[in-house]
Amino acid sequence: MALASQLGKQIEEIVESLNEIGASFALIGGLALASHRVVRATQDVDLLADINIADQIDALAVKLGYQCIFRSAEAANYLRGSERLDFLYASRPIARRLLISAGLHPTAFGTLKVVSSEGLIAFKLQGFVNDPRRTQDLEDIRALLRANLGSLNMTEIREYFRLFDRESLLDELLNAAK
Amino acid sequence: MPLNNHARAADGPISVVLIAGSGGPAIDVIDTRDPYERLDDLMCVVEELCPEWPDRPGFSTSGRWLL
């Protein structure tokens, strides 16, 4: 399928380029929602990638015309005009497990590796806890719970909320989703 | 249903609000297309209506990175 949106073309380019260097990565963020029964507009390409290839990714992003606007041991943000490309780096056991277990999804954007719904909720929770202004993360969690309630591994999800001391928030969200 | 409640299940019935947030009828439609194809269609419209998005917050430089 020929992609018509700027976002679609951006994803196609970055996925192809990352595959060419053999990078281990998976979709997270608003884009990944589409693999889990939630479709919403987004303009950011968010990826989870192995920390060990952060330098290779940086070189690739620059080669593709992106400018690095932030980089740490945890994450990096790149900008090319109005196009954003964000990476979270997997270095700890949970993120590494979520990266390794990410599923392959044949899509209109090509075959994409996407983190599980439970993992996506975990990253959204981490984003919201670290910056409560990111209310879209909370809305995405609500939408994921509502759309996938019958198939989610609630034990795993509760562990993530416990990790961030937000179990009561999960109970509120679940009550609203039922 | 609020107007900004745009997230919806990809495979199940989709509530579509016509005209205005609380003024139009909500109808259920079935869309069996690839959700990324639908996302591509949605983004074509969004990019036409809003070519420049407001600044979005990047990753927090502090906080609890526990995952």
Offer a concise description of the structure.
The complex is a heterodimer of chains A (178) and B (67). Chain A has 8 helices and 7 strands, in the order αβαβαβββαββαααα.
Unreliable stretches of chain A: none
Can you give the mean pLDDT of chain A?
Answer: 94
The end-to-end span of chain B amounts to: 34 Å
Q: In one word, what is the shape of chain B?
A: flat
Number of helices of chain A: 8
Structural class of chain A: alpha+beta
Describe this structure in words.
The complex is a heterodimer of chains A (178) and B (67). Chain A is an alpha+beta fold. Chain A folds into two domains: 1-115, Beta Polymerase, domain 2; 116-178. Helices cover 48% and strands 22% of the residues of chain A. Chain A has eight helices and seven strands; from the N terminus they run αβαβαβββαββαααα. Chain A has helices at 6-20, 29-32, 54-63, 93-100, 117-130, 135-148, 154-163, 167-177, and strands at 25-28, 44-50, 67-71, 75-80, 83-90, 103-107, 110-114. In chain A, strands 1-2-5-4-3 form a five-stranded mixed β-sheet. Chain B has a domain at 14-48. Chain B starts with 13 loop residues before the first strand and ends in an 18-residue tail after the last helix. Chain B has one helix spanning 35-49; strands at residues 14-17, 26-29. The radius of gyration of chain B is 16 Å and the shape is flat. The longest helix of chain B has 15 residues, at 35-49. Chain B is α+β, with helices and mostly antiparallel strands and 67 residues long. Chain B is built from one helix and two strands; from the N terminus they run ββα. In chain B, 22% of the residues lie in helices and 12% in strands. At the A-B interface, helix 1, strand 5, helix 4, helix 5 and helix 6 of A face helix 1 of B.
SSE layout:
The complex is a heterodimer of chains A (178) and B (67).
Chain A: H1 6-20, E1 25-28, H2 29-32, E2 44-50, H3 54-63, E3 67-71, E4 75-80, E5 83-90, H4 93-100, E6 103-107, E7 110-114, H5 117-130, H6 135-148, H7 154-163, H8 167-177
Parallel strand pairs in A: 2-5
Antiparallel strand pairs in A: 1-2, 3-4, 4-5, 6-7
Chain B: E1 14-17, E2 26-29, H1 35-49
Antiparallel strand pairs in B: 1-2
